[in-house]
Each structure stands twice: as C-alpha cells, then as structure tokens.
Design a protein that fits this description.
4% of the residues lie in helices and 48% in strands. It is mostly beta strands.
Amino acid sequence: MQSIHPHRHDLGGGFVVRRLLPSAQRRAVGPFVFFDHFGPVIARPEDRHDVRPHPHIGLATVTYLFEGAMQHRDSTGAVQRIEPGAINWMTAGRGIVHSERTPDDLRGVTRTSHGLQMWVGLPQEHEETAPRFEHTPAAALPQVALDAARARVLVGRAHGVASPVATLSPALYVDYELAAGADLALPTEPGFERAVYPVDAPVRLRGPHGEQTLDAGVLAVLDEADWQLCADAPARAVLIGGTPLGPRFVWWNFVSSSRERIARAADDWAAERFDVVPGETERIPLPERALP
C-alpha cells in the first residue's frame, strides 16, 4: 500500500485546497490524474472564492460536493448549479472554458463549502473529442446498504449496481458512509488500479499482509489483492480507480499525451483563441512557468 499525503494549493482569494494527485510519489490512479479536496471551510459574505474562467483540454472534470453549492458556467453554454450528492462531469476534449462561482443567493450569507474535484484523463483516441457537460442529480445515483455502511456508486459499477454517468474509459468512484463497526470488502476488477481516501476520520484497511490505519486526508493506493475497509467510529471515505491510460503530461489545466498539444493550448489561451463563457468578462491568465 502506498500512502500519499496532500500538499496545499491556493486557488486564489484565499481558497486553499489539499491536492493529492498528481504528486511526486504518484502521477495517477487509473484514469484519475488530479485529486483536490477542499473544505470544510466557512465562507463569509466578504469572501471571494470564485474561480474565474479558465481552459482545459484532454480531460474530464468530476465535481462532487458534501456541503455548499457552486454555479458552473462553460463555453458550451451550460449553466448548472452544483449541489451535494450530484455528479457534474465536464468533458474538455479539444478545449473548453468554465467558471465556478458562488451562487448569487449565497453571496450574502455565511456558508460552508466542502467537496472533491478530480480530473480524469481521456483515452488518446478521445483527447480531441467535442467538449460537453453532463449533470447527474443525486437522486439518479444508486445507493447500496451494506453491513454498517452505505455506498453511493458515483461512477462505474460496484456492489451490484451501476452509475448512469457515462465515461470514455473504465473508471470507478464510490462514496462510503461508514458506521462504527463497518467492515466491507472493497470492489476490485482485473487490471484496475484503486485508491481509498478517508474524508473526515481515520479508517482501517485490512489486506493479505495485515491491517493498517489510514488517517483522514491521506490517499492509500492499493495493490490488486483483496482489501477490507473498516471503521471503529463513523467515517466517510471514497474509493477511486480504473484502467490506467498510460503516460500523460499535466501542465496547469491541460492534460495530454503530447507535449506539443499542451504548448499549442497554452498559445491558444494566451492569444484568446478559446471559446468564451457566455456572460463572463474575466479570465485567469496563463501562468509564468515552464511547459512540461
């Protein structure tokens, strides 16, 4: 088992996330090339945690909230309020621009923001696919009652049920709510990589060579053996995984199997050749750092 500890990253305006992927120890888990955990943070009316318009290529963003709300807008014309329990899947493909802002009705109140955002790399044959946005409401995602636990299958198939979220390569994303005494077998699939992330409390992982405690906020990458997820007290944890895509370059908001494609995307953003988000006038500038 490989343990990955987060590093802190400021997205602007004091909005700090804990980033698990990519890391120096591990670049990806299956198709998941990026993993951010934000909150729980109390936002006051004067706070500005908006993420201004910025571009992506070669990936899909996967947003899942535990608390709070976001207003998504993108260059396809999609406008969607993101609330807890839903999956919002934005396929960037050949290029998309989006913003994530506080909904207008929450700007004047103190609120809690808490959730996960991940990126899934696209298979090479789909890296230049048309951009699109898909919202799956919480009620459409299957839930399974397990022994002292509940599993919500957000992406892929697990515990006998399948998520309606469409993906371009095999992927798995499960949200577990564990009661004290929970002891459950984690799903596995030949050729899948898997990782467990305790969101708010420690859990235990029991494998063929014994048992280890995993602290909240630490990502554990598992081998292909059978693993049990256990909890001595109430806890929340997620499982991610899927089929590896092979090497990918990740620079700023761009993912690609080609360095040259990332350089071209950087040039396009600097020259304002990406499509715009209707109604938005701001943009995040290109960072001043070396391309991969």
